[in-house]
Amino acid sequence: MPGKNTKEHYRSICREIRRHNHLYHTLDAPEISDAEYDRLFKELLDIEQRHPELITPDSPSHQVGAPIAEKFSPARHAIPMLSLKNVKSEEEFREFDTSLRKTFLAREEEIDYVCEMKLDGVAVELTYRHGRLTSASTRGDGLVGEEITENIRTIASIPNNLSAPAPELLDIRGEIFIQLEEFRKLNRVQEEKGERTFANPRNAAAGSLRQLDAAVTAQRPLAIFCYGNGRWSDASHGTQLEALQKMADLGLPVNLEETVKVRGTEGVIDHFHKLLKRRDSLPFEIDGMVVKVNDISLQSELGELSRTPRWAVAFKFPPRQETTVVERVGLQVGRTGAITPVAHLHPVNVSGVTVSRASLHNWDEIARLNLHVGDHVVVERAGDVIPDVVRVLVEKRTGLEQPIPMPQTCPECGGEVLKKPDEVVPRCANPHCPAQTVERIKHFVSRNAMDIEGLGARQLSQLISLGKVETIADLYRLTKEDLFDMERMGDVLAEKLLNAIEQSKKQPLSRFLFGLGIRHVGAHTARTLARRFDSIETLAESDIESLKAIHEIGDKVAESLADFFGDPAQLMLLQQLHRLGVNPAPERVVQQGGSLSGKTVVITGTLEQIPRKEAEELVERLGGRASGSVSKKTDYVVAGPGAGSKLAKAEKLGIEILTEEAFLAMTGEEPT
Ligand code: IVH
After folding, report:
1. In this predicted model, what pLDDT tens digit does every residue of 505-563 receive, in sequence order?
2. CA of 202 to the centre of ligand 1 (A)
3. Is 597 helix (H, G, I), strand (E, B) or coil?
4. What number does the ligand 1 atom closest to the CA of 121 have?
5. Mean of pLDDT over the chain
6. Which of 69, 73, 74, 188 is at a distance of 20 to 30 A from 613, taking alpha carbons?
7. What does the alpha-carbon distance between residue 176 and residue 240 come to, in Å, rounded to a whole number?
8. C-alpha closest to that of 353 among 377, 384, 319
9. Is 82 touching ligand 1 by the criterion CB < 6 Å?
10. In the chain, % of residues over pLDDT 90
């Protein structure tokens, strides 16, 4: 009989796991690392093994994930979506292989395995009927997930229609993820908007996928790799590798280049080490390798347990976590005045990389972590993403730890700090704050803005501290003599730099606009504006109502533009730039009264003559608007091969449908 303590301990572990499931799956805000969760879960399984009489039907060991959130409709998986058992060492993998061969298959011969990358994202199921995507759902608890079809349809790489010949019915399983580069961009945009940043790419993918408004999902850089299937009518593949190849042939994204067939344990272990070495140089985050028995008939022979198949296992990488101490918290002032707290850590080696700083994002995050200076903390490194403080080891507190108050004045200029109620970040309200100036100039010269080569952060900091540059306009006043005061600056290099600065005067208007760092005006918005206005002057003169009337320009952007152009200091800067010869080139001008003037056009399916992007640009150049979704307001739908739900909707609404040829004839563009 289990003692009272064991019983209570068991219940408390169940409660803890349920809470962490909810935090992870429903709120996308985990409080503990995967490794800690695994430890907790293992403890639960150990108790259940020793005291099966304690097991309740709702034990977390009977569930794969967390219950579904209330806001989406439930979607039952026709075949349950299983999870994977983890192995964490060579030894554990050898045990797994031995048990397959000796216990279940009674064979001496080595097994052929397929090794796939284990992407760290969100598992989804896509159902295709007669080759058409009809529904999509998250995994949920493995039996019932959330219906997210509309959100899935916004992901460009997921085909609405499979290439022929498609099976009558096909359930595809895959992992939705965000590439590291895109993740960093997304967080920059979020920060810029004063919205919450994501702790890691997985949370960003989960949060983006579970948006009630599919238009928000559409703006997030989601990608997918398909790795498995549920129902597959008339399936004829004999191996996992063949199944993956077929999925790729159907037009589904499959990570085939990174999937290898190996023989036996040595083959698996050898590949594991190769992959582990490449972990930090991959464009996305993986947390291990999935090893699957290749032969489907062997898979069937091995069968499945309630939560996991016997024929596959997740060979996990060591967690990139360590504990260290927060020595102090520094404050960083960005170009928009946003003040970000940064933890300065006692340097610690986290799987090969020394970590000494971690962004704390904002004071909400500090409160959530209950973080104090002097705390022992767990830090985690995901790819080359800036490390994150995962949690505080409260049990190590000495009582000497100090709270981290929100600053009342700017740490750089002493100016007033304001925090808007709808934003999570406090901002320095002084537009002339020197820290903001440095960041603004850095942004102006950066690759996606004016792209002045040879003027990196190091060179700029020198020019600023030498007093040669205080504003963007000063860049265009620099002389060779000024540059000679810089370190390691010879005649040739100075000449080159001056030339690059000179060249930038003719950069397109969109780059100049983006470079000005107007709040809420990112690269995309800058391009939209540059297509409407032929110069910065005409934009500056335009009133707030006409700005709001532009498609894709919302209230926030319009107000921010009005604030910017209403600021005498900014107007003076623009005048100075103009006088110094900075004359951004107008974008391809929109033809007034062009053949698509005032028309809304949706392009769907694959175009064969010109790339879709070019077709959309063509629409805009001819005065029309290229839209992503069909509505009553749509004038034309250009449908190429593979057009799916958009075409169907257009037919239903009676909208004029054009072939690619008819569209090109209408625009007067010659097919190539
Ligand atoms: S196979 C029965 N393959 O890892 C097979 N899963 O804990 C179950 N994952 O829920 C999954 N990459 O979210 C499989 N190549 C891959 C995977 C993969 C990532 C995720 C997936 C799954 C979890 C297993």
Report:
1. 999 999 999 999 998 888 778 888 998 888 999 999 988 888 888 877 888 899 999 99
2. 14
3. coil
4. 13
5. 89
6. 188
7. 20
8. 384
9. yes
10. 55
Residue-wise pLDDT for 156-188, tens only, equals 899 999 998 999 999 999 999 999 989 988 988
Active site residues: 118
Query: What span, in angstroms and rounded, lies between the C-alpha atoms of 317 and 119?
Result: 12
Over the stretch 462-490, which tens digit does the pLDDT of each residue have? 898 898 999 999 999 999 999 999 988 88
pLDDT at residue 68, rounded to an integer: 45
Domains of the chain: 4-62 (1.10.287.610), 85-316 (3.30.470.30), 321-397 (2.40.50.140), 434-579 (1.10.150.20), 600-667 (3.40.50.10190)
Nearest protein Cα to ligand 1, atom 4 = 118
0.90 cut: is pTM over it? no
Average pLDDT over residues 257-263: 97
Distance (Å) of CA 187 to CA 10, 67, 381: 39, 28, 16
Q: φ and ψ at 263, to 5 degrees?
A: -110, 125
Q: Which two tokens stand for residue 59?
A: 């034990």
Q: Which of 227, 271, 308 best tests ligand 1's pocket when mutated (most atoms within 8 Å of CB)?
A: 227
Residues 6 or more apart whose Cβ sits within 8 Å of residue 535? 509, 584, 586
Is the CB of 302 inside a 6 Å radius of any atom of ligand 1?
no
Strands lying side by side in the sheet with 636-639 = 625-627, 600-604, 636-639, 656-658
